Amino acid sequence: MMGAIAKRGYELIGPTIRDGAIVCDRLNSASDLPRGWTDEQEAGKYRLVQRQDEAFFGYNAGPHSWKKFLHPPEGRLWTCTRNGGGLQIVTEGPAAPKRAFIGVRACELKAIDILDRVLMGGTYVDPEYKALRETLFIVAVNCGQAGGTCFCASMNSGPKVEKGYDLALTEILDDESHYFLVEAGSEAGAEVAGETAHRDANAKDVEAADRIVEATRRQMGRTMDVSGLKELLYRNYEHPRWDQVATRCLTCANCTMVCPTCFCTTVEDVTDLTGEQAERWRKWDSCFAMDFSYIHGGSVRASAKSRYRQWIMHKLATWVDQFGEFGCVGCGRCITWCPVGIDITEEVRAVRETESASAAQKGAS
Amino acid sequence: MIHSLESVIRAHTFFHGLEERYIAFIAGCAKNAVFGVSQYILREGDPADQFYFIRQGLVSVEIMIPQQGPVTVQTLAEGDMLGWSWLAPPYRWHFDARAVEETRALAFDGKCLRNKCDEDHDLGYEIMKRFTHVVSQRLDATRLQLLDLYGVHI
Amino acid sequence: MVPAPYRIERVKRETHDTFTLDLLPMDSTSVSSFGPGQFNMLYVFGVGEVPISISSDPANCPALEHTTRVVGAVTKAMGRLKRGDVVGVRGPFGSHWPVTEEGGRDFIIVAGGIGLAPLRPALYALMRQREKFRKIVLLYGARAPEDILYRKELEHWRGKFDLEIQVTVDRGAAGWRGNVGVVTTLVGRAPFDPTNTVALVCGPEVMMRFAVMELQKRGIGADRIFLSMERNMKCATGFCGHCQYGPSFICKDGPVFQFDRIEPIFGKAEI
Questions:
Q1: Could you check whether the bond before residue C255 is cis, i.e. omega within 30 degrees of 0?
Q2: pLDDT tens digits along A213-234
Q3: For chain B: N or C, fewer Cβ within 10 A?
């Protein structure tokens, strides 16, 4: 199948092992996939462990997300030359190689959908994102297991892939057989499936796939109660929990780097040594950075408390008012990759559970 | 139509809620005053035996700084109270006050009112309440001035 | 969105640290229209880009005026530019002051420091339709007499139109016979009818906090008070995330906000 996709001129991007983690990178063939590997994830912990079987997709989300290829970590926006009395600005043409993402999980598909709304849904459209998005071929995968920090079921973004894919695979693997149930989500997908060695699926295959997805749903490592979540957070700007988490948070920005929906960027203007040519670059930025909120004189959000609060409020409250949905897809990466193991589900739970106690305390004092 | 002093006092928010007998007493301590352009109303160091309710005009609260001359720290206008040093020892003015334009005011005999407040603590409380509010508003305003909000703080 | 080259037609020194650039696009002779309260992103070659409010008269705008204060590297570099130099311009961005819809009302405008610059287009717009409104009051606070912006214009307006202007300074100076005190203290006795007034406020955030308090004390509803907010801005198109203020993006939901929209978070620390 991957050959069929590559034949159509797509650059294959998918999971592969590097530096002790399953990252997203260019693939040459299916042999680059982390076959027979799984990951053990917990708050502040990520380990690769060998499986007993040879599953191609028997793991969950790694430190990379697909935003690395749709909303690149850095890129030049334009070049400006001084000519005569004027300025000449030349934009960087969106370098849009056709890409195929192999192994997109339901949570990641939702994350891409969310980014579509952020970067293409408003008055202004990000041209580079749009160009990359339009030529994208997506091979999604239904997770065969949930990770230790996963909670896509709570966020209603998985584990089953619903829409937005060209092909969706469910890996069915037992002592006797190892095959994939393939659903085509588009004509392009159907064409590729047609060229791959296959047989028509029967009811037993579909049932097996459904059972796997259901088992995954029940296996989630975390849960998040999203009922009234936006209002809960809006009511608790001053909750003492934020002071508490600030004693742990290093403002290292890992969470924003691994999060598949964090989209903040900054711009850098640079010149060459002659001073005749300038460039503007766009780079990933994080609301945890001290100067993220700098305006003449100082940063509006100077304390770690305010920066953690900004991140969690954006992800689970203000995002809803901005884009009509939560910014969080429950992939659990922020929990896994936080060096001190801060757990977004735990922070929300703490605020929810102690809200009335905190309010009573305020009333009494 | 000439308003009686009592009706002027009764009309102003500063005196709202005061019992009638107190209003009558205060009116008894009050008289009209007019200050011409650049006329001093009170001077730093002088005994603070009066205070003023500005009915119309502009008053500059100033201090004389050597080499700079008179420097205004605050401008007061219609509806403002001028002077509270009559309330606390040593009962002397700490600043100058000068009419910027022709100013009409009600001048109150602070010494007389002070003595009455010593006798009648209920009246004293009412007067203190009201002046505390004035002082707190001026303090807020002064703090905002001190913050130098329009300055560049880099 | 890429900066368009604009030539500096004129540089005017307003005060010791504030200047106005009049800009004209290099590829055409007419400037694009804008609403009062909007801003442009101005790019200084090789240094960077900053958001600057447009302070021209929207209906009579031969060149786009940008009154700028030197507060950092880019504005400092901008302050050294001369007539004939070229800057990049992106815009206009953002929301407007509500000066077109509200007929028959009083307007109270409270400006502090450089906050008068984004309000200047609003004043022009109001005066252009003067007969539509009743009282128009401008309360303007500056740091010291030497920091007063648009002095001549203020004197002209005061003399020519039915517009009440009160100027005050935080600190007086020898020879200053005008008002001394924070501008918020002027709200209490400003001549407007609170039941039928729209308030426009712009200045440092602390000043706006106290100004809003005074306006509300006078009885103006939160839906009739408008502020111009400011936060770090990089893209001005809603993508970089820097200008977020609660759920709002200042670049597209603001910078002009109806107060009841931001009231829940206004005044909260570190938002």
A1: yes
A2: 999 999 999 999 999 999 999 9
A3: N
Which residue among C72, C180, C206 sits closest to B147, beta carbon to beta carbon? C206
Complex ipTM > 0.90: yes
Q: Are C113 and C198 part of one and the same domain?
A: yes
User: What pTM value is reported for the model?
Assistant: 0.93
B140/C210 CB distance under 8 A: yes
Closest Cα partner for C215 from C241, C232, C235, C190? C190
Q: What is the CATH number of the domain that holds B116?
A: 2.60.120.10
Q: Does C181 touch chain B (CB under 8 A)?
A: yes
Bridging pattern class, strands B40-42 and A265-271: unpaired
The residue in chain B having the minimum alpha-carbon distance to the alpha carbon of residue A296 is B154
Give the count of domains, chain B: 1
| pLDDT, tens only, B69-114 | 888 999 999 999 999 999 988 999 999 999 999 999 999 999 999 9
Residues C14 and C87 in one domain: yes
CA–CA min distance A295, chain B (Å): 10
Tell me: do C88 and C114 sit in the same domain: no
A128 at C interface, C-beta within 8 A: no
Instruction: Let me know if residue B77 belongs to a domain.
Output: yes
Task: Give the residue numbers spanning the domain of B73.
Answer: 5-149
- Answer whether A134's CB lies under 8 Å from A97's CB: no
* Residues spanned by the domain of C222: 106-228
Contacts of B113 (CB under 8 A, 6+ apart): B26, B29, B86, B127
C177 with C122, same domain: the answer is yes
Chain C interface mutation, best of A79, A239, A257, A300, highest count of C Cβ atoms under 10 Å: A300
Contact residues, chain A, for C93 at CB < 8 Å:
none
Together in a domain, C215 and C154 = yes
Question: For chain C, what is the domain count?
Answer: 2
